[in-house]
Write a structure and sequence with these properties.
- It is built from eleven helices and nine strands.
- The chain is about 35% helix and about 20% strand.
- By secondary structure, it is an alpha/beta fold.
- The strands form two sheets. It has a seven-stranded mixed β-sheet. A two-stranded antiparallel ribbon has the order 1-8.
- It binds S-adenosylmethionine.
- Specifically dimethylates two adjacent adenosines (A1518 and A1519) in the loop of a conserved hairpin near the 3'-end of 16S rRNA in the 30S particle. May play a critical role in biogenesis of 30S subunits.
């Protein structure tokens, strides 16, 4: 059993479900395989279950923790040579400035209530990242890695697959946490694509969001007020198709047409 902070009551608002099982903690650390000299940042170290194992490999890591009590406790557990603790909200953190210099390796057993906005925020600096290893709700990882045509393929799949190669590594059962969440979790590896297709990010975001606005509707129905059938066809898409059947590259083509034509 990992060493834990006594008397700390898990805070729901911070999505605190602490890993309590050495087998799973080690398995995640092995998947990350931290090495000395790498710039590793853990989001939400909590009671340092994973942090200790990461430091064992890397000698030093950075952590972003929002919970003031945990941040203060963490400072008493590690020397500043081993751990730099940044007390901050990972959603408001200045990732761009932090990622200057050596590229980052990002790790986290993420608070599930902020996982999607955090993934989108990190996607903005994907060019500054070596890799990301996250524990998330299994259902979210299934959506991230889904292929077109599958029921779980949606906005999250398209937006992230445009930037990353992703693979689910393994599932983790609720009993591995205290308190136990209601859902199964999965660990996902995300490696930024070396040359993501160039596209105006806002146009891409807007096209994808509008296309999936109503899942059961065709693209024509979701986009008719904005984009013509001809332009949809020019992007290699049939207007009668539903967004959940359309590959990422066609969304990119459509977004390019939208921005080139100032639609
Ligand atoms: N890494 C620990 C473990 O595996 O046991 C804790 C994981 S717990 C699911 C999520 C952690 O993220 C908590 O420590 C929580 O306080 C922290 N957290 C929640 N929201 C955060 C935010 N917006 N920014 C930074 N940390 C956050």
């Amino acid at each position: 059993m990992a060493e834990v902070l006594k008397h700390h009551k898990a805070r729901k608002r911070f999505g605190q479900n602490f890993l309590n099982d050495d087998y799973w903690i080690q398995k995640i650390a092995d998947a990350v395989d931290p090495q000395q000299g790498q710039k590793i940042i853990e989001i939400g170290p909590g009671q340092a279950a994973l942090t200790r194992q990461l430091i064992a490999g890397a000698s030093h890591i950075f952590c972003v923790e929002i919970d003031r009590d945990l941040a203060a406790w963490l400072r008493t557990q590690f020397s500043s040579g081993a751990l730099t603790i940044i007390e901050a909200d990972a959603l408001k953190f200045d990732w761009r400035t932090f990622s200057e210099g050596e590229k980052l390796r990002v790790v986290g057993n993420l608070p599930y209530n902020i996982s999607s906005p955090l993934l989108f925020k990190l996607a903005e600096i994907s060019d500054r990242v070596v890799d990301q290893h996250f524990m998330l709700q299994k259902e979210v990882v299934d959506r991230m890695t889904a292929a077109p045509g599958s029921k779980t393929y949606g906005r999250l799949s398209v937006m992230l697959q445009h930037k990353y190669r992703m693979a689910k590594l393994f599932d983790v059962p609720p009993e591995a946490f205290t308190p136990a969440p209601k859902v199964v979790s999965s660990v996902v590896r995300m490696i930024p694509l070396e040359n993501p297709a160039e596209v105006d990010e806002k146009a891409f975001h807007d096209v994808v969001a509008a296309s999936f606005a109503m899942r059961r509707k065709t693209l024509r129905n979701n986009l008719s007020k904005w984009i013509s059938d001809d332009m949809i066809r020019e992007a290699g898409i049939q207007p009668e198709q539903r967004a959940e059947t359309i590959p990422v590259e066609n969304f990119i083509r459509l977004a390019r047409l939208v921005s080139e034509n100032n639609v």
